[in-house]
Amino acid sequence: MNTKEQFVITISREIGTGGRTVGRLLAEKLGVRFCDKDLVNALRERFGLTTYEIEKLKGEKKNWLTDLFAKLNPSPVAVMNGDPGGVYFDNSEKEVTTDEIFKAECEILRAIAEESSCVIAGRSGFFVLDNHPNKFDIFLTSPHQNRIERVMRKQDLNENTARIIVDEIDKMRENYVKRYTDKSRYDLRNYDLCLNMEGLTEEQAVDIILKALGK
Fold first, then answer.
1. What are φ and ψ of residue 132, in 5° steps?
2. Helical spans, DSSP H, in 48-98
3. Other C-beta atoms lying within 10 Å of the C-beta of residue 199
4. Over the stretch 65-107, which tens digit does the pLDDT of each residue have?
5. Position 166 in a domain
6. 48, part of any domain
7. pLDDT tens readout for residues 166-182
């Protein structure tokens, strides 16, 4: 991947690996937009976007996505950075439930990647943006128990509850990816870099990724 040209980095991750934080820090280091499910959901839900509506907007004006960013309240920067004070911040795990919503989210992701360089966490970005000419795909993993302990700390849960959450979300995310991409997110051939987060801080992980990018 050439960081001197417009690029996109996708981060797929298991729950409890710190993937959202890694993505945000990486975007900050590279000086580009960070996008995760909160931004996609904010755009889709705030403006009630379906595939039909997106196609209509695209037909009316070239900079339709920029206009939507400008209308987000609070500012898109807050949503992109996972600001818990943002009106549209949602820390819950939501699964896409309809093909129409998945198609709309794909349109939004592709539009974001076409508009400027960015880091995208989740949303099957490795598949959705498969045809992007300048893309780098990352997968973050960590031992099962480590992920459970992280969820316990982050959400103030007991071990049994955290274990149930980790196992259920692992299953839901894999089913989601298989349903819409016909691939397994655990297939390492999907990615350019796979990183085990055991013993690493998010900052150290970002440094490793930057080195892999030649930065």
1. -65, 135
2. 51-60, 64-71, 76-80
3. 8
4. 667 666 665 444 443 444 333 333 333 333 334 576 677 778 8
5. yes
6. yes
7. 999 899 888 888 888 89
As a residue count, the chain comes to 215
- Report if residue 130 sits inside a domain: yes
CA 180, 10, 206, 82 dihedral sign is negative
Mean pLDDT computed over every residue of the chain: 80
| Full-model pTM | 0.75
For 15-73, the pLDDT digits (tens) are 999 999 999 999 999 999 898 876 666 666 666 666 566 656 656 655 666 676 666 65
* Structural domain count, the chain: 1
- Angle, alpha carbons 174-179-182 (nearest 5°): 90
Question: What's 60's domain CATH number?
Answer: 3.40.50.300
Cα 211 from Cα 215, distance rounded (Å): 5
Q: Please name the residues in contact with 179: beta carbons below 8 A apart, sequence gap of 6 or more.
A: none
